Amino acid sequence: MKIIEQPGAPNPRRVKLFVAEKGLEIPFETLELNKAEHLSEEFTKLNPLQRVPVLVLDDGTAISESVAICRYLEDLNPEPNLFGISPLERATVEMWNRRMELGLLFHIAQCFRHTHPAMAAMEKPQIPEWAEANKPRVMQYLGVLDDALGKQVYVAGDRYTIADITALVAIDFMKPARLQVSDAHANVKRWYDEVAQRPSSKLR
Ligand SMILES: N[C@@H](CCC(=O)N[C@@H](CS)C(=O)NCC(=O)O)C(=O)O
Questions:
Q1: 88 Cα–ligand 1 center, Å
Q2: Is residue 37 lining ligand 1, measured as CB closer than 6 Å?
Q3: Among 43-52, 79-88, 115-124, which stretch is predicted with the lowest mean pLDDT?
Q4: What is the spatial distance between Cα 167 and Cα 193, in angstroms, rounded to a whole number?
Q5: Does any ligand 1 atom lie closer than 6 A to the CB of residue 10?
Q6: Whose CA is nearest to atom 11 of ligand 1?
C-alpha cells in the first residue's frame, strides 16, 4: 500500500494527518503537481480526475477522494476512532466534516486557485472575481464554526475527529489564499491553538 501525494497540498495533507493520528506507517510518494506529473498517462490511469491523493493497494487497486481513503483506513484500523461510533456520533461527524470540506476548504481553495500566480497553469481560466465571490462564504462557514466551538471543545463534539483534521487543514490553507481568521472568531482561535499542538498537525 502507498499514497501518492503532493506535499503541502491540502487534500493529501488531510490524509497524511489522518494516517498519523491512526499511528499507521504507510509510505507517501511525491508527485509534483507543478511539473504536471499528475497529467501523465500513468497517473491518469490511477485517477482519471488527475488529482492527489491516491491510495494504491498492493494489487494495484487505486482509491482517490480523501474521505474515501480515510474511511477505508478507518475500516481496516478501527482504533483510534475518527469517524464516530454511535449512529448519532457518526452522523454528526459526517455533517461537520462535509461542512468543513465542501464549505470551508472548498471556498478557501477557490480563493487560492483563482488568484495565486502558482495556480495560473492549473486553473484555466483564473477568475479573480470568483475568488472575491468566495470570500464571504469562507467568513460564513468560519462564523458557523465559531458558534459551534463556543459550545463544544472540538469541531464535531467533545472529542477530536476527522472533522478537526479537515478544519485545521482548511484554516492553514487560508495563509497561501491570503485570508485571515478575524478577531471575531475567538472560539476558532482557541480551538486552533489547541489542535495545532498535536504532532500530526506539524506534518505538511
Ligand atoms: N475531492 C478530492 C480533491 C483532490 C484535489 O483537488 N487535489 C488537489 C491537490 S489539494 C490536486 O490534485 N490538484 C491538481 C489540479 O488541480 O490539477 C479529494 O478529496 O481528494
A1: 30
A2: no
A3: 115-124
A4: 13
A5: yes
A6: 51
| Residues spanned by the domain of 114 | 87-202
Q: Which atom of ligand 1 is nearest to the CA of 12?
A: 10
Average model confidence (pLDDT) across the chain: 97
Give the model's confidence band at 92: pLDDT under 50 very low, under 70 low, under 90 confident, else very high: very high
- CATH number for the domain spanning 48: value is 3.40.30.10
Q: Could you read off the pLDDT of 150-195 as tens digits, one per residue?
A: 999 999 999 999 999 999 999 999 999 999 999 999 999 999 999 9
Q: Is the Cβ atom of 69 under 6 angstroms away from ligand 1?
A: no
What pLDDT score was predicted for residue 96? 98
184 CA → ligand 1 middle, Å: 30
Of the residues 47, 76, 105, which one is the last residue of a structural domain? 76
Report d(CA 134, CA 19) in Å as an integer. Answer: 30
pTM: 0.98
Ligand 1 within 6 A of 105 CB?
no
**Residues linked to residue 63 through DSSP beta bridges, in sequence order:** 55
18 and 95 inside one domain: no
